[in-house]
Amino acid sequence: MTGRIAELLRALGARIVNNWIWRLGFACRFLWFTLKESGASFRRFHLTIREIYFTGVLSLIIILVSGLFVGMVLGLQGYDTLVRYGSSEALGVLVSLSLVRELGPVVAGLLFASRAGSAITAEIGLMKATEQLSAMEMMAVDPIARVVAPRFWAGVISMPLLAALFSAMGVFGGYLVGVRLIGVDEGSFWSQMQAAVDFREDVLNGVIKSLVFGVAVTWIAVYEGYDAPPTAEGVSGATTRTVVTSSLAILALDFVLTALMFRGH
Amino acid sequence: MMTRKELDLWVGIFAVIGIGAMLFLSLKVANLASFSAADSYQIIAKFDNIGGLKVRAPVKSAGVVVGRVGDIRFDNESFEAVVALNIDGRYQFPKDSSAKILTSGLLGEQYIGLSPGGDSVSLKSGDTLKLTQSAVVLENLIGQFLYNKAAEGDGKK
Fold this sequence. Notes:
Radius of gyration of chain A: 22 Å
Shape of chain A: globular
Oligomer: heterodimer
Structural class of chain B: alpha/beta
Low-confidence stretches of chain B: none
Helix content of chain A: over 70%
Number of strands of chain A: 0
Number of domains of chain A: 1
Mean pLDDT of chain B: 84
Distance between the termini of chain A: 55 Å
Largest sheet of chain B: 8 strands, mixed
Order of helices and strands of chain B: HEEEEEEEEH
Radius of gyration of chain B: 24 Å
Strand content of chain B: 25-35%
Strand content of chain A: under 5%
Distance between the termini of chain B: 99 Å
Low-confidence stretches of chain A: none
Strand order of the largest sheet of chain B: 7-1-4-3-2-6-5-8
Helix content of chain B: 25-40%
Number of helices of chain B: 2
Number of strands of chain B: 8
Structural class of chain A: mainly alpha
Order of helices and strands of chain A: HHHHHHHHHH
Largest sheet of chain A: none
């Protein structure tokens, strides 16, 4: 009986060590190598620009459209609740604070993970499966410097810009619904918003959040792609893992960052 | 496949509208431009009780925002709250001006109301306001009201 329990515990321990701790350690070493080899992605910046095009510019449509709709929904729902307390002018505060602090970075991060992160993983995984990475090594080209680092930096650069665009679009959507459609007073919509939103406390913290999410998502994406088993099954599994892991990472990191940033004074 | 020039153009557009969105958030949404701490001077006001006053609460005179609360400390010698007010350098107030803590609306946030006095000398940076009026604490007010009612009741007997 005790032997059986020990067996189970041993299996559990082996699973945790092999699947999580080993992979986490490898991912950290991988990040270190990526950072160490990222000189080339700035010296030959057109490599990074190409990747910014694929991760950032091509994500614009989904970010802008969903930002607009999220803002419009916030406008409608917020008005519905605020009007009960006779403070519908605070609609601008509600829309802008929830976008700048939370929804902008988080929703843009989730969209970024599923739109760009999965593409990065699939691309690197397929390059590995078709032995393009090995071919580069044969030609004495470091695949981390040539393939991984530019994608990593492109994600880190794109993410804050996308989150800011999402928030700005959302505020505009809230303005459209609140002021243009429902008829909240335009002056107090903006002035109450400007009185309540603080540059350092809200806007800058939102940018920091989106930067952290950008690092997390692209790190997970390039790591999963590089680590994918070189088969069709392996690449598809890695792509799925990228989306799931980075979504969970975004939500968990968001809680930690919010707890650190907005504890009240 | 796109040429490198086209890629550069698109990425450039992306960077410009992204930075534009950040500027929009900081200037239009957070209103960074309207009040900068650069040209402001600091005066000190001591209160017995500041109620729910917070750092960055507005300082208003005649209803116009003329500054912000910069710092709130507790003086362990006089047992008073020491509030530092950052007043916009464009506005000058007489030396015998008074400050009181007011509430916007019934349940709104608290702010400092600055009433100008009649002195011909203006306040300088680092000056302390002589006349202050503390925040109204609802519990004290209700307590006083009940006490007065009880005293009235006693008088009638």
